[in-house]
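Try this one yourself first.
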């Protein structure tokens, strides 16, 4: 992203999560704060737009963005049962978990890590929407490409000896391979029981023709926004790389598994198509 302004993709992701709350029934991902954080005017516009026919591509993107948040919070719940006391949201954007944290009373600490410009923009959005910042939340401004995640978290009061779960959604494809590896090695060094969920894109050459067309369309749009795709992974090679780093349990979900787990028996057609993007959970 560009240095002096917030991420445009963060705004677009937040809009799609909010539209999911309006259009889709049943919801894959319940987020009662998704519309509020966008503001009253934006919510009114989204509700008006929802009455118009939705392009198939927009529906598929909305489904993926909703389900990856659901998957991350499902896996967070498992991590808490393993003893996790910290939740780090990497590249938080307008993520709303901290403002509806069901484990607040159990002492779960939430750290939102993001580029300083995006974080400042988010805090203005929270203030405008009158969404209170809970005591369990700490903001940790970090530029992933020029600063150490470890240093940024340490300054925020992060406890490196505590079992911690990380979510890293909508970020990995935009970083360099070296930056991704550095962050994953940091997570792999956390105490047993820690873990991470992230999404990633498969290489263009591994996709079929229809998937390439969809990929090219999205790639052009994010590049035009100043946030081009940079890093891709082959699923088996990524699993092997994670095992070498020290992750013990790895679950990699393609669209077939995601649809079977989260989109079965729907009457509205909401589902993923193609297999260009995957979700992955890795446990230390």
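Now uncover the answer:
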């Amino acid at each position: 992203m560009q240095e002096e302004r917030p991420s445009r993709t963060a705004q677009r992701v937040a809009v799609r999560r909010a539209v999911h709350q309006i259009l889709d029934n049943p919801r894959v991902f319940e987020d009662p704060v998704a519309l509020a954080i966008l503001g009253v005017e934006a919510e009114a516009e989204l509700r008006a737009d929802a009455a118009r026919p939705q392009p198939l591509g927009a529906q598929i993107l909305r489904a993926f963005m909703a389900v990856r948040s659901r998957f991350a919070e499902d896996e967070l719940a498992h991590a808490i049962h393993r003893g996790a006391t910290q939740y780090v949201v990497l590249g938080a954007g307008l993520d709303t978990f901290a403002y509806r944290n069901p484990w607040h009373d159990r002492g779960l600490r939430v750290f939102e890590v993001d580029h300083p410009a995006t974080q400042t923009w988010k805090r203005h959005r929270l203030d405008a929407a009158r969404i209170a910042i809970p005591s369990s939340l700490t903001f940790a401004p970090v530029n992933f490409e020029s600063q150490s995640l470890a240093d940024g978290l340490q300054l925020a009061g992060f406890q490196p000896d505590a079992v911690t779960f990380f979510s890293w959604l909508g970020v990995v494809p935009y970083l360099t391979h070296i930056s991704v590896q550095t962050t994953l090695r940091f997570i792999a060094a956390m105490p047993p029981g820690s873990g991470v969920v992230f999404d990633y894109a498969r290489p263009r050459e591994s996709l079929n023709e229809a998937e390439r067309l969809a990929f090219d369309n999205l790639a052009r749009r994010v590049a035009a926004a100043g946030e081009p795709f940079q890093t891709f992974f082959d699923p088996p090679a990524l699993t092997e790389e994670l095992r070498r780093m020290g992750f013990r349990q790895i679950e990699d979900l393609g669209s077939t598994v995601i649809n079977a787990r989260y989109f079965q028996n729907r009457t509205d057609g909401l589902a993923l198509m193609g297999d260009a993007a995957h979700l992955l959970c890795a446990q230390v």
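Discussion: Residues 56-81 form the longest helix (26 residues). The two ends are 30 Å apart (CA to CA).
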